[in-house]
Design goal:
heterodimer; A: alpha+beta; Cytochrome-c3 Hydrogenase, chain B; three-stranded antiparallel β-sheet; 17 helices; 8 strands; B: mainly alpha; 14 helices
Chain lengths: ~400, ~400
């Protein structure tokens, strides 16, 4: 890139023979020793939410190369899972992602249910839809908060965290814990929805649908916010396919794909919702997709709650399951707030898995950071990487 | 034959300060008056005590003679002026924390006196912290540049007159002197960023220099416009001219808004705090400064914010005068000035709460493509008004 710029400058300088400058700018520039430098952002850096490093090569303010380094939080999750009976992996699966813990637990339970060949009761499926969407909202609000601080505004951070607190309360109402919930079980859920939960969650949804516009207004009505996000970090659908990018980042490039609709699990096919898709492929499109997803989640929660209510109080919500899983290879996937997460289970007939592989969407998405950051400015790097929504628990496992 | 003094009252007589032949100002100066009266009491007490032991000695006489009174009064004058500005800045710091807190739906600082004592606690904390210094910094520039940033900021903060009787310098190019000192800091920041042997500091320092060329020129055009309208570079003259006609934010509304934005950039406050952009550059050029040095840098930041607000108050809001109240303006013009300054600072806080940080290329675009034409339009409007004989 640099070489091209220099040759262009030389050409334009050559086209003006009439003017004889005192200093020959082109020759002086060629003589000057300009050096690109590596700036290492992380692992302790305000922009890295969690422990990871982004090495960027800068030429002045322009980023010419970027390299993500992950693995600071590796704790041998997959190996540890091999030494535990199946039910005891559930609390561990909560720790994969701290922002949306229940999705991974749900995914794990789905994988084992597939291996056992059982189908959980309808009520459990609908409750898990509610739980998944609560977690999606929590995760997206956490992301929205981080967007605020990454762009240099603290108000968005605190307002989004305030709204997230209501969804945390819904988590507490449902399963007694705020973050690591330990709620799904193989073959259902741990407990039925508590008394008056339907009233509370509808209230919470209605409050959120109004309150989110405060935050969105602060961002969308501000031309500085929009200009910081538009036309930065552009991805094309082809690049997404080659890099394996999934989730809101994929839908921001115009690819209309959502596992909840296109490969439904947990009765998502019984629920009517839209999948937001935008074509621009820049940071702003990713932002808009996530915001729209939050509103769709509210819609899903309302419908799923109506279904749970229709099933009645005495409907079963959990099956009894055997502790040993028959030998075989099984695979399940689920639409995480950040993309597609998958689990691959090899069981050998005992009560412990032989191998449990986790596919984390962020581990794949962050590998695109070179393509995202090339040619942008240093100030854009936090804004672009915020749209990836890093979560190191699942990335490093 | 020396006079024989019998009591302290003989030494303390509060004479007319203008009668002192060594009086350093041309007009009445309130802080100097306070200082001189303070020295009358302190020096008079000392002189009386010495005179009790050694009656009729020359030291007592020397302590209350015109020249000595002037000398010590000037020292006390410096302390008085600095303390008033310092307390004003602490109040604006407290204001920022409280207003920002309320905007963000939290309470802000809560330590004593509605959170005001948090400033004291923070000062104590930075004072007690270990003063670390990285091994490979260029020590001399590392120390001196930051001292100069802090020093010039304190100097201009003290040089802002609070009224026509509360000033440090009062001569015809006072405004130019303040603006010149105000624009010095980015140079020191650039050198400081270079000296720290840290890539973040280096980029931060470069950004400070890059930013300065974008907002400094429109700002100077706007100041020139205000001076043109008033017909003087004297701060008191500008304020008086606004009292005689109208506050300049009415005819120069474009200039007022542009100057407000430029003043935000000059004080390096949030939409334009590129030099210390904490999300990408950790702390920018301040990264390697720890302990009390960092505390003083923060204080200098607020001093520059205060000076920005004070400049807006002087140039556009009518300084220490209020319209329609006539002679009532003679009672507490200093307080009126500080209140106006805090009001402008309130607007700056709201801007900080609402906006994210702009990018380097965006501020260059803003400076040259938006502020520059706006300031020239403002200049043209003022010229037309002047030619039409309105002002």
């Amino acid at each position: 890139m640099m070489a091209d710029d220099n040759s262009e400058q030389t050409k334009t300088a050559g086209q003006m023979p009439a003017m004889k400058p005192v200093v020959d700018v082109a020759a002086e520039t060629a003589k000057m020793e300009t050096d690109k430098m590596w700036v290492i952002m992380g692992p302790q850096h305000p922009f890295s939410h969690g422990l990871w490093t982004l090495k960027i090569k800068v030429d002045g303010e322009i980023v010419t190369d970027a390299e993500p380094i992950v693995g600071y939080l590796h704790r041998g999750w997959e190996k540890e899972a091999e030494n535990r009976p199946y039910p005891k992996i559930i609390p561990m699966a909560d720790r994969l992602c701290y922002a949306a813990s229940m999705t991974y637990t749900h995914l794990y339970c789905m994988t084992v249910e597939k291996a056992l060949g059982i189908d959980p009761p309808d009520k459990a499926k609908y409750i898990m839809i509610i739980a998944d969407e609560i977690n999606r909202l929590q995760s997206h609000l956490m992301w929205l908060a981080a967007v605020g601080t990454d762009l240099g505004n603290f108000t968005v951070f605190l307002w989004a965290m305030r709204e997230r607190e209501y969804w945390m309360d819904m988590n507490v109402r449902l399963c007694g814990a705020r973050m690591t919930t330990n709620y799904p079980r193989i073959g259902g859920v741990r407990n039925d929805t508590p008394e008056l939960f339907d009233r509370d969650i509808i209230r919470c949804t209605e409050h959120f649908e109004k309150a989110v516009w405060d935050i969105i207004g602060l961002i969308d009505d501000s031309s500085i916010y929009v200009s910081r996000m538009k036309n930065t970090g552009i991805l094309t659908p082809e690049q997404c396919a080659n890099l394996g990018i999934t989730g809101p980042a994929l839908r921001g490039t115009g690819v209309d794909f959502d596992l909840r609709r296109d490969d439904p699990y947990s009765n998502y096919d019984q629920i009517d919702f839209d999948v937001p898709v935008l074509k621009q492929g820049d940071s702003y499109a990713r932002y808009m997709v996530r915001v729209e997803e939050m509103l769709q989640s509210c819609k899903i929660i309302k419908q799923a709650m109506a279904k749970v209510r229709a099933l009645g109080k005495n409907a079963p919500y959990r099956l009894k399951v055997p502790s040993n899983v028959p030998a075989g290879r099984h695979f399940a996937k689920l639409e995480d707030p950040r993309g597609e997460s998958m689990m691959y289970l090899i069981s050998d007939g005992t009560d412990k898995p032989y191998r449990l592989k986790v596919r984390s969407p962020i581990f794949v998405n962050v590998s695109a950071s070179r393509e995202l950051c090339m040619g942008c400015r240093i100030a854009d790097v936090p804004a672009i990487m915020a749209m990836i929504d890093m979560c190191l628990g699942e990335t490093d496992r | 034959m020396p006079m024989v003094y019998s009591s302290i009252l003989d030494w303390v007589n509060f004479p007319d300060i203008m009668a002192n032949p060594y009086y350093p100002f041309e007009t009445y100066n309130l802080p100097y008056d306070i200082s001189q009266k303070l020295w009358e009491i302190i020096g008079g007490t000392i002189a009386w005590l010495i005179n009790l032991l050694f009656p009729g000695n020359p030291v007592s006489e020397w302590l209350v003679c015109d020249m000595t009174v002037n000398f010590f009064a000037l020292i006390i004058f410096m302390i008085v002026v600095f303390l008033v500005v310092f307390i004003g800045i602490l109040i604006s710091l407290w204001e920022e924390r409280k207003v920002l807190g309320r905007t963000m739906d939290r309470r802000g600082t809560m330590v004593g006196m509605k959170g005001f004592l948090q400033c004291v606690a923070d000062g104590f904390k930075t004072f007690m912290k270990e003063d670390t210094q990285p091994r490979k910094v260029d020590r001399m520039t590392y120390m001196w540049t930051v001292s100069l940033v802090i020093g010039t900021s304190m100097l201009i903060a003290c040089m802002i007159p609070l009224s026509d009787r509360w000033y440090v310098v009062n001569y015809n190019t006072g405004l130019l002197l303040i603006m010149g000192l105000f624009a010095l800091a980015p140079f020191f920041i650039l050198v400081s960023g270079w000296s720290q042997n840290n890539k973040y500091s280096l980029i931060g320092g470069m950004r400070a220099a890059e930013m300065m060329i974008s907002y400094e020129i429109p700002m100077l055009i706007l100041i020139a416009t205000a001076c043109l309208m008033a017909g003087t570079f004297n701060i008191g003259g500008i304020v008086q001219a606004q009292y005689d006609t109208m506050p300049y934010f009415i005819p120069q509304c474009i200039g007022f808004v542009t100057f407000f934005v430029c003043a935000n950039a000059e004080a390096e406050r949030t939409p334009f705090d590129l030099a210390e952009a904490e999300s990408e550059l950790v702390e920018g050029w301040q990264t390697e400064y720890a302990g009390m040095k960092w505390g003083l840098i923060m204080l200098a930041d607020y001093m520059r914010g205060y000076v920005s607000c004070a400049m807006i108050t002087i140039l556009y809001l009518g300084g220490w005068n209020l319209p329609f109240i006539g002679d009532l303006n003679n009672y507490v013009p200093e307080l009126v000035f500080l209140l106006k300054t805090w009001l402008v600072f309130f607007a700056m806080i709201i801007v900080r709460a609402a906006l994210p940080r702009v990018r380097t290329d965006q501020i260059l675009n803003l400076g040259w493509k938006v502020f520059m034409p706006l300031s020239i339009i403002n200049l043209v409007i003022v010229l037309l008004l002047k030619m039409g004989g309105v002002f």
